[in-house]
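Q: I'm writing up a methods section and want to include an example of the input and output format. Could you take the sequence below and give the corresponding predicted structure tokens, formatted cleanly so I can copy it straight into the document?
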Amino acid sequence: MDRTIALLTDFGTTDTYVGVMKAVMTRIYPAVRFIDLTHEIPPQHVQQAAFTLLKTYRYFAPGTIFLVVVDPGVGSERKAIAAQIDDYFFVAPDNGVLSYILDEVVSKTVVELTNVSYQLVPVSNTFHGRDIFAPAAAHLAAGISLSEFGAPVEQVAQQLNLSLNIEEKEITGQIISADHFGNVITSIGEFHWIDDNHLELHPRFGKPLEKPIRFAADKATISVNDQKVTRIRRIYGEAQAGDLMALVGSGGYLEIAINQGNAAQFLKITSGTPVVLQIG
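A: Here is the clean output for your methods example:
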């Protein structure tokens, strides 16, 4: 059986951590294939890792195993877990990194990784990615049943607090991250274009709504760090080079950008910075 493991970490690529985990996995199951989703999550930023996973995992083939190692609690009493969620598998610390996905699905099975037969021994206090998570992912790829790794977990870490406050004409969210180009990604979404000038908001976070919010894109105003942006654009080219703009990114969330520039640097944003969308 040919199985893919997708890696999501905060390890970066200048150290040996990712390479060593791959070495462990190929030694256990040489036929495994790897996809590096990213290793550039900011250090210990569990919330950004959870959001990144939520936006991307369904683009992978069913059966993919996600190895997620963003683990500021390594060596503590937090559990190491593996989960089957719909048609995908996840191996991760129980620190909330899977909570956004677990919150949106019905079919899920979670177990604690306690069977030492599927770990490297001795287990270090500081590198569970190598000694616990990578072996579990490789053994899953090799066809070991989820139930072999440990007992079921009835309750996992609570969902991380990602704010989205929805009023009649005003929606307040927060900055999640910025990408390589300096485009600023917010928690306000998911959006769907109805026509060239109208959007529907299906909020992923915050209190559930009875129906989506529909509004005109050219009537919207976005405020962040004392800067205001009028209207939501469909593409970067609708703004002049150097202009601050707002648009719906490929993940369906509101983004703030500068056409051919770096909005994150210009706005001096940090993760958690409030952002306000006024829609009338």
